[in-house]
Amino acid sequence: MTIETSHYASATRRVQPSAIRELFSLLSRPDVISLAGGFPSAAALDLNGLRGATERALILSVATALQYGNSEGYEPLRELIAQRAKTKGMKLDASDLLITTGSQQAIDLITRVLVDPGDRVAVEAPTYLGALQAFQFQGADLQAVPADHEGVRVEELEAMVVQHRPKLLYLIPNFANPTGYVMSLRRRKQVLALAKTHRFFIVEDDAYGELYFRDPPPP
Ligand SMILES: Cc1ncc(COP(=O)(O)O)c(C=O)c1O
């Protein structure tokens, strides 16, 4: 039997061509230096650090390093992340954490846990394409809210929330992709107050919060 598009599950039929995938296939060409994707220079990758860490993990325990483990992720790593989060004023324990292979997998899992087809998902505009694709795959009804240099615009957000009652709001408060904007503390507090009043979830994608030259972004 030949597979045709009509055989695909409805979620797969919703998949759109990915600009990111197109971009990454161009990046493998030696004659292209692209500044369009978040593609680190190979020279900036910590080869020695990674090699040392891999060696230590293998020497310490091959069984732990190469064997299946908890679905939640390696316990000492979860402890370490919880400790770091506490230094930033976040109240969480290792048992609250799930290790993923990156932000993208986390966004995908959160979407599958919280969003039914037709549920409204609010995003600031413009935002990260990969997140939009995860929401679209799940059949979310996307609601875009404009953002400026202080982050998502609260008046427009409130009007949208009152009218459309989104299930969740996806934000990149620190060095947003693609604008690079940092959301002000004032806006953070306003958005939090809105979420409490109107009872929607906030998904914070903090892919870049630790990459800054001068002042750290607000909490
Ligand atoms: C805002 C944002 N979130 C998530 C990702 C994907 O991150 P990861 O590679 O950790 O899945 C990116 C990558 O460009 C991004 O810019």
Describe the structure.
With about 220 residues, this protein is an alpha/beta fold. Among the domains are: about 70-100; about 105-205, 3-Layer(aba) Sandwich (Aspartate Aminotransferase, domain 2), CATH 3.40.640. Helices cover about 40% and strands about 10% of the residues. The chain is built from nine helices and five strands. Strands 3-2-1-4-5 form a five-stranded mixed beta sheet, with helices on both faces. It is globular, with a radius of gyration of 20 Å. The chain starts with 9 loop residues before the first helix and ends in a 15-residue tail after the last strand. The relative contact order is 0.10. The model has no long low-confidence stretch (mean pLDDT about 90). Bound molecules: pyridoxal-5'-phosphate (PLP). The site of pyridoxal-5'-phosphate has 10 residues, from helix 6.
